Structures are given as C-alpha cells and as structure tokens.
Amino acid sequence: MRLRVVDAFTDRPFRGNPAGVLLLEGGFPPDAWLQQVAAEVNLSETAFAHPLPPGGEADWALRWFTPASEVDMCGHATLATAHVIATSGLARGLIRFSARCGVLTAEAAEDGSITMDFPTSSLTPVAADPVVRRALGAEIRSVHDTSEHVGDLLVELVDERAVRELAPDHAALRGHSRRGVIVTAAAEDPSRGYDFVSRGFFPALGIDEDPVTGSAHTALAPFWAARLGRTSLVGLQGGARTGLVAVRPAGDRTLLTGHAVTVIDGELLARPLP
C-alpha cells in the first residue's frame, strides 16, 4: 500500500503541518490496525480514505487518527488527502468526503491551492479555567468553548508576541477535559500577510503542539471576523513550523484554503490481518 507524507498549509517542504495519507482500495481495515499505522507514522494525524460507490452524497470515506486515538474532524489531513487524490489523477474538481463530522468538500484551484468547506464552530464565552490559566502562564483576554466537533478551548492572549513566546505546561494541559487549547492574538503587523496568529496544544491526544490545525480555524474564522470586521482573513499558525490558512466564514460553513506538498512517497509493507 502506498503511503505519503504531505506537508499541509504550505507550498514548501518542511513547513506547515505534515500528515500521513493512505488511500485504500476497499473498506477500512480493523480500527486496531489503523491505530497501529498512525502510531507508527507518528505524525499529528494520519488520514485513511477509500472510494465510495458512485451516486451517493460523497465520493470518499475518510477517517483520521492521531498516534493515540481517532478524531472527529481534522483540517490539515483532509487537505493532504485531497492533494494526494488530485495530484494522482483520481478526481477532478470537487471532492466530497464522508467523515464523522458529516460531508466535507475540497476543490483544487489552478494555482494549486485547495479550498475546503467545513462546518463553522460555535463560540461560547466561558470563564478562564484556573488549570488552563496556570498551564499557559500568560495574560488572558477572553476564553471561548467551541463546538463538539472541534472540542477545543479558544484562548485570546494580549498580543502576537505573547502567542509566539508561550511555553505552556503540557503535563498540566494533558489533564484538561477539552480536546486541546488554541491560543490566538491579532497580528502585530497585517502587512506581513496575515491577520491573526495562533498555536494549538493537544497533549491529551499525544500531540504537545500541532503546527497548523485546520479544524481550529473553523472557530478562529468567526472569532476574528467579528473582531476585525472582515470575512476574508489569513491566519498564521505554529511555533517552530508555521503555515498559512486563508479563511472565509459563511454562516454555518467556513471555507479554509491552503497549499500542500508531498515530501515522502513510499510503501507500507505491514498488511492488515485477515
């Protein structure tokens, strides 16, 4: 079976967020095998997809696994999967995925960018959890709970510098009840090509920091659109590795646009047991 590693939300190798992508010919193998492959690949997510019969609401079935568990929604591994399908000549135009969070779509443009259509996350203001406050060790402006598909806390910090210099206590965050914590702030200088910054921490999923989290931008998009008064925005996410996500909230849906590049193309020799 052919296994790719794709850097998502970047047009250059070794940037953005790497995802494993495995296209299957039939249905999904046993969950235990999928989880073992994801643990072996050891990236923040590995995507598994197989084609569906024609005439349905989706073209491909899609699942995502971290090294520790399956997740309900993942943006960068969806982008990576769409990139592999498009560049392999397996589909043209709109690609429809059936996933845990519903039907998602992705469409490649002539410039190589891919635009995905995801459900917009809800945002509910909440009090700052003392555990999270201590774990972050930074001044907090606001905290919002996101929808069940995203499952993160969205934490606004005072400025871009605070986001970039943050060194959270991952062990403390690991015991927090939410999927992860996204920290964000407005860009210090929008002329640099982005409107807001963010970083994402998911130690409960076995990922201390995720370089670029597409699903988190379904919450970041409406959050910053309301504050900045615009609906077409660009977010920069990451610490050591960074990537750009163009976002456009449209009611209950959010469009996420980015590039991707394949950096490894190899063969998975371990087969599922019959």
UniProtKB/TrEMBL annotation:
Entry annotation: catalytic residues: E45
UniProt entry tagged with the keyword ATP-binding: no
Cellular component GO terms, alphabetical: cytoplasm
Domain of life according to the entry: Bacteria
Gene3D superfamilies in UniProt: Diaminopimelate Epimerase, Chain A, domain 1
InterPro entries xref list: Phenazine_PhzF-like
Keywords tagged on the record: Isomerase
Protein name as annotated: Oxidoreductase
